Amino acid sequence: MNAIRTARQRARDELTREIKAEARRQVVAEGPQRLSLRSISRELGMASSAIYRYFPSRDHLLTALIIDAYDSLGAAVEDVESHVPREYIRARWQALCTGVRTWARQRSQEYALIYGSPVPGYRAPEETIAPASRVAMALGRLLADGWAAGELRPVQAPPLRPGLAEQAEHVATVIAPGVPREVLAQALIAWTQLFGMVNFELFGHLVGSADPADEFFDHAVDCMADLMGLPAE
Amino acid sequence: MNAIRTARQRARDELTREIKAEARRQVVAEGPQRLSLRSISRELGMASSAIYRYFPSRDHLLTALIIDAYDSLGAAVEDVESHVPREYIRARWQALCTGVRTWARQRSQEYALIYGSPVPGYRAPEETIAPASRVAMALGRLLADGWAAGELRPVQAPPLRPGLAEQAEHVATVIAPGVPREVLAQALIAWTQLFGMVNFELFGHLVGSADPADEFFDHAVDCMADLMGLPAE
DNA sequence: TCCTCTTTGTGAGCACTGCTCTTGACTTGA
DNA sequence: TCAAGTCAAGAGCAGTGCTCACAAAGAGGA
């Protein structure tokens, strides 16, 4: 709106940032459930009630952190993928996957915040869905590029059930226009596979089987690439 | 040990059960984080401090619930799978998957308890790992049966990296003796895929794409069956 | 039976939490 | 300059997990 914000506005923005920064520090250090508004206020040297001028409740503050986490993950994935030449579709997929995994391992508490079990009674608000879809968008672009270049092999899979065909068609229009629904159905599988593996690795469900998970992860990523019909190269 | 337990022992067992039952009711109704020892004691008409004679901490009570949840899921899956004739390998896989999904949808809070993000600083204790592996065991039996019957098709996948080959070999000896490691590597993928989908469905990450997820789920289950080389039938 | 020893329940209390509300001080724009 | 709007502070409410000293009650040996 106005480039010249008032002093009050600037102070408000700064304090909002500081509160979020301290909150993130606590989440990273001790997990989302230990996040305490009172200890934030103590750390910032203000009264606990003052926090409520900036975030109406603990959940609102958590939501802000969630949005930031989605954005951070999206940016990280976009960044790592952008370093791969555009025409290497399979390499871009691999970069996307390792990007997600690396980010998740480095910032596991924030990952748990967005992909772990939601806080009870917590319903993801409207403003989270855009940042939440950045990773999916990256996958969509990659598929669209591969399709446009005529490099995707036909998928080997059972025919789509009608409802799924419709959903896949809708996803295609939003995320990868022109790409056939069969490809997007397989991409949905690959997508849930990716986060399923990262979840299991981070939450300890691979202990005793595929732990450490590096090679298993790479292997699965390859299999998913084949499932989507990505070119070998 | 002794069939004739003392009155004290019987009272103790009963109260332990009642505490767990009330705790489970609260978890089902409001989620794990709202579980409150004080409100349990209030509901049971006892002093809050008395609970600590039965569970040394809130986390210990949660662990007991987690074990019960694993056992309940394992039993449900075993039950639904046992109703399929032993020789229908693919149908057993499908039954296993829908068994997991159905249980998860019916008891979502308990599912979140075991497959959501772990409570902060919470480390899964030793006694959870046996009940936690019941679903994996069922998958192993199914593969072993299929292999013994000579019905598994050779898997179409990249060769295993050495570390993964070793891990798959180890999983095979524990869960599906005799079955080649290549099959178990694909089974690991199918396994993470299964829980990845259920996670995403329950935690709202499929909203806007594959929601409702029934057909997508069935499709993915089929694809995973193919990935493992299960017979068509 | 009596008399210890152990187990169990109680209630007060500590240190903490999210959140509300009143009160008084400050900034801002007309 | 001055009313309107904004903000921080502090007290307070209702709740939490957990500890501890103490008093009943049961268990088992002499």
Entry summary:
Two copies of one chain form a homodimer. With 233 residues, chain A is mostly helical.
Based on Cα principal axes, name the global outline of chain A: elongated
SSE run of chain A: HHHHHHHHHH
**How many distinct domains of chain A?**
2
Helices and strands of chain A: which structural class? Answer: mainly alpha
Count of individual beta strands of chain A? 0
Structure characterization notes:
The structure is a homodimer of 233-residue chains. Chain A has 233 residues and is mainly α. Chain A has two domains: 50 residues, Arc Repressor Mutant, subunit A (Orthogonal Bundle); 161 residues, Tetracycline Repressor, domain 2 (Orthogonal Bundle). In chain A, 66% of the residues lie in helices and 0% in strands. Chain A has ten helices and no strands. In chain A, α4 runs antiparallel to α7, α4 runs parallel beside α9 and α8 packs across α9. The radius of gyration of chain A is 21 Å and the shape is elongated. Chain A starts with 6 loop residues before the first helix and ends in a 5-residue tail after the last helix. The model of chain A has no long low-confidence stretch (mean pLDDT 93). At the A-B interface, α5, α8, α9 and α10 of A face α5, α8, α9 and α10 of B. Chain B binds a DNA duplex (30 and 30 nucleotides) through α1 and α2.
